[in-house]
Design goal:
- About 40% of the residues lie in helices and about 15% in strands.
- It has one domain (about 10-170): 2-Layer Sandwich (Nucleotidyltransferase, domain 5).
- α3 (about 70-85) packs across α7 and α4 crosses α5 (about 105-115).
- The protein has a five-stranded mixed sheet with strand order 3-2-1-4-5.
- The relative contact order is 0.22.
- The protein is of the alpha/beta class and about 210 residues long.
- A hairpin with an 8-residue loop joins β1 and β2 (about 45-50).
Length: about 210
């Protein structure tokens, strides 16, 4: 994939890519993004979001952007907006066992495929954040920094992140001592220290370098 000039990024993700596809007659455009790809524990999540075919959604989802640029509070608020205004959405997961068996990239693709399977209507075109789904026949456009450029992808990034964070908070209750609620499975110093004391849990990715 060619290099992308970051100076060309819009101030906020917009509907430029979606609008071009809508004008070509492709009304069901789904943005897809993932969360948890680099974590040491827990599943990888992916979300797919189809926005309504109207420019008014930019105002309705004002402030929606790459989930990494938002505070947890703002992500949860934005999540409610997305669930209210999206034409369709879905969230899929791939388990730590699947990540170990398949590898992280195929497992991420599997999570995205599961998210797609929840969409009604089924999309006509996919916009993805630096990802390609080889087993999906729908036309796809992979964008560098897609969550900063496409509002559909940014919305998907928020749903993937908030859904996975909620699951990691649940896993913190099942596997106490690791601090999953705080670091969400990423390799922080506190997490690595807990691994040294406790060893890996059943939700750690054993194919990753944990310590």
């Amino acid at each position: 994939m060619p290099a992308f000039d970051a100076s060309l990024l819009p101030p906020e993700p917009d509907l430029s890519f979606e609008l071009e596809l809508w004008q070509a007659g492709l009304m069901g455009v789904a943005g897809i993004d993932e969360a948890g790809r680099g974590a040491l524990a827990g599943p990888v999540a992916a979300a797919a979001v189809i926005l309504p075919q109207t420019m008014e959604v930019i105002g309705l989802l004002k402030g929606v952007r790459d989930s990494k640029q938002m505070t947890p509070k703002h992500r949860e608020i934005a999540r409610e907006w997305i669930l209210q205004y999206a034409a369709a959405w879905g969230v899929g997961f791939a388990t730590p066992e699947e990540i170990d068996q398949l590898g992280i990239v195929p497992a991420t693709q599997l999570a995205a495929w599961r998210a797609l399977g929840q969409l009604l209507p089924y999309p006509d075109h996919l916009l993805l954040d630096y990802l390609f789904l080889p087993d999906v026949s729908i036309p796809q456009t992979a964008l560098i920094k897609g969550d900063c450029r496409s509002l559909s992808i940014a919305a998907a990034s928020i749903l993937a992140k908030t859904s996975r964070d909620a699951l990691m908070r649940e896993l913190d209750l099942t596997y106490p001592g690791y601090g999953f609620a705080a670091h969400k499975g990423y390799g922080t110093l506190a997490h690595r220290g807990a691994l040294l004391r406790l060893g890996p849990s059943q939700v750690h990715r054993l194919s990753f370098t944990l310590i």
